[in-house]
Design brief:
Blueprint lengths: L2 H8 L17 H16 L5 E5 L5 H7 L8 E5 L8 H10 L6 H11 L5 E4 L15 E6 L5 H14 E10 L7 H13 L3 E5 L3 E5 L4 H8 L10 E6 L2 E6 L15 H42 L1 H12 L2 H12 L1
Parallel strand pairs: 1-2, 1-4, 2-3, 4-5, 6-9
Antiparallel strand pairs: 5-7, 6-7, 8-9
The structure holds S-adenosylmethionine.
InterPro entries: SAM-dependent_MTases_sf
Pfam family, one: Methyltransf_24
Protein name: Class I SAM-dependent methyltransferase
Length: about 325
């Protein structure tokens, strides 16, 4: 994240009215695809837990949490304000998140859109290994914590154990210039550890350790897919991958937060007050202008000035010049 982007982040409203008010890196194509995968599972009667590694201020977690079914658990794992487990991860935290991230800010954002918080594990994602979360229980896992190679390798191992056989794993920043570690870990998992790509967007890799074909068929048949999604198919080492281009999408915005109506009413009131103030200012200026014009007219009507004007109008120019010269002399 650049300094300019961080400065923008710091000027977001404290209470989000809409998802775009929550700082983060989660864009429309991926919001659409998260909802596409989760809804597809729900329509097929698939149940299972949800997990996000790396939540920041909640932008993607809020969307995932919108799909939590009654029997399911949504777990979010993030360091938030805790120390990182190693120096490289600490530097990453310092550079990108420390200035803006607190657990309470995450919670406040999340509760603006949902009645209950997810299960929060405030710890390094490495703490999820070794049985802290149930094996084979998850239907959807988003990996978006540390972007360093060693961490992502560990997160993928956790995901592989935690996912149901047909569960979906999403990796963030698998191809960005500033995150070669994620790219290395992702493609290593594809080539050496049986991870199968389903679909790629500009920002995220969607895969499974199960069968990628049914979801790919539904994508290519455009089942419930936005008509703006521009699909292409790529074959890599004999394996099919779908790609979604980055053309603008017209998808419905995520539902507004619980603060939306109040904030909208407050904004409308402020705007009305501002308009009324501007009108009053304009009225005062017009009244002042009228007073000035009246004063100038009264001045013009004073007898001495009337006489001057009449003299100017009636006497020949040579006479009026002579009078003026005489007065100056
Ligand atoms: C890119 S942000 C997540 C963005 C978020 N998913 C969104 O869409 O807005 C990465 C997050 O990972 C967290 N993080 C970094 N290293 C971590 C680690 N080792 N364990 C757990 N969380 C970590 C950071 O605190 C930060 O909140």
């Amino acid at each position: 994240m650049t300094d300019a982007a961080l400065r923008t982040e710091q000027h977001r409203p404290a209470e989000p009215a809409v998802l775009d008010d929550v700082p983060g890196w989660f864009w429309d194509h991926d919001r659409h695809l998260f909802e596409w995968f989760l809804t597809r599972q729900e329509k097929a009667g698939v149940t299972g837990d949800l997990l996000e590694m790396g939540a920041y201020l909640g932008r993607s977690a809020i969307v995932i949490g919108g799909h939590l079914q009654p029997s399911e658990t949504f777990t979010v794992c993030d360091l938030f304000d805790s120390d990182a487990p190693d120096d490289e991860n600490a530097a990453e935290m310092e550079m990108s998140y420390r200035r803006t991230l607190t657990r309470s800010a995450f919670e406040e954002n999340y509760l603006s859109f949902h009645d209950e918080l997810p299960e929060i594990i405030q710890a390094p994602t490495s703490s999820l290994a070794g049985g802290r979360i149930p094996a084979g229980a998850f239907r959807f896992i988003h990996i978006d914590a540390s972007h360093l190679y060693e961490h992502v390798v560990g997160d993928l191992q956790v995901a592989r154990v935690a996912l149901q056989p047909e569960g979906v794993v999403v990796l963030d920043d698998y191809r960005s210039a500033h995150t070669p570690g994620v790219a290395a870990a992702t493609w290593e998992a594809v080539f050496n550890h049986d991870l199968k790509p389903i679909v790629l967007t500009e920002g995220k890799f969607y895969g499974t350790w199960g069968d990628p074909e049914p979801a790919q068929r539904d994508l290519l048949d455009r089942v419930d897919l936005s008509e703006d999604c521009d699909l292409t198919v790529e074959v890599l080492n004999g394996r099919r991958m779908v790609r979604i281009g980055n053309n603008p999408l017209r998808i419905a915005p995520f539902r507004p937060s619980r603060h939306h109506d109040r904030l909208a009413a407050e904004a409308a009131r402020r705007e009305a007050e501002q308009t009324a103030e501007e009108e009053q200012r304009a009225q005062r200026a017009a009244a002042a202008d009228l007073d000035a014009r009246r004063a100038r007219a009264a001045e013009r009507r004073r007898p001495v000035n009337v006489a001057k004007r009449v003299a100017g109008d009636l006497l020949p120019p040579v006479v009026t010049s002579a009078i003026r010269r005489a007065r100056r002399g």
